[in-house]
């Protein structure tokens, strides 16, 4: 099977159908259904306790669902024990044998299969090169860094040539910079190997960075499945909007819906802002409909001077800088609007600033955004 880029895709399709799992009164998974494509880098993203690790354990065979099925290439695997399933798991804790060298840890699955020494050595050398651990063959896990130990765990999982690789928060024990570097390496490794990766994380930046698609989970349910840009730009629920990146989110009521070409220019009244705002949307929403509205902080402009020649589809508010936060590549401003509402605005620093950010604490500012940059997140029953 070939992917869109012409590469041969390996691994299996994974289909989770109506899977539920409860632990006493706690419902870890509530009728979850997901389809993962062959060779895809698919992430399960959500906060602690949302059910993502439980789902991974069910796919691996370490736990059984109360109902539902798990299919690999169309075959239900729930009756198979973990060792009979064509999947391998990489854990957060590495799970290496402390008394074995790097070489022997990686070789362990092949020794269980009683592979000949010559073939075994060729395979181990191949995977040592793949995870960039040449020269560390004789070291025990205690002599390796956290990133190196995780590479050993990944190589050991891949040397079995599984059709599906399950990764349970594999980078969360590492420091931020090492985590980012290893994430890039993991993505590159997936491109080289091409098998199906199912990656569990609570870190939205990790999921956005490497995933072909993401399933956002909360309270045992899948709230949205989509490509990273879809999840970020078009969140399906209030929770997804808040969990993925930062946003300004308000309840609103539809006041007007005017057709323009293939979309509608919608007027919303936001009580918290004591004002009407404009947003474009593809749905012809009825007047009086209750909705949620969001605008990302980086989509907004902030100036000390009132903008002139403002077009009709621009939303404009005045306020005072309540809290400026300088982060080097950007500044985040908490702006106290005249009506008492706080809005977050992010300004990227593309140019050199020898005197620091131009906007300071308690300075009067104007914030604005285009109707095209806001988004109606979900329709709320009135």
Describe the 3D structure.
With 382 residues, the protein is α+β, with helices and mostly antiparallel strands. The protein has two domains: 14-242, Rossmann fold (3-Layer(aba) Sandwich); 246-380, Beta Barrel (OB fold (Dihydrolipoamide Acetyltransferase, E2P)). 22% of the residues lie in helices and 37% in strands. The chain contains eight helices and 20 strands. The chain has helices at 52-60, 102-112, 117-130, 146-158, 176-193, 204-210, 228-233, 238-243; strands spanning 14-23, 26-36, 41-45, 67-72, 75-76, 87-90, 164-168, 196-201, 213-218, 221-226, 248-260, 263-270, 275-281, 290-295, 301-303, 314-326, 330-337, 342-348, 364-370, 374-380. The strands form four sheets. A six-stranded mixed beta sheet has the order 6-7-8-3-9-10, with helices on both faces. A five-stranded antiparallel beta sheet has the order 13-12-11-14-20. A five-stranded antiparallel beta sheet has the order 15-19-16-17-18, with no helix packed on it. A hairpin with a 2-residue loop joins strand 9 (213-218) and strand 10. Helix 2 (102-112) packs across helix 3 (117-130) and helix 2 runs parallel beside helix 4. The longest helix is centred in the middle third of the chain and has 18 residues, at 176-193. The radius of gyration is 25 Å and the shape is globular. The two termini are 48 Å apart. 35% of the residues are buried. The model has no long low-confidence stretch (mean pLDDT 91).
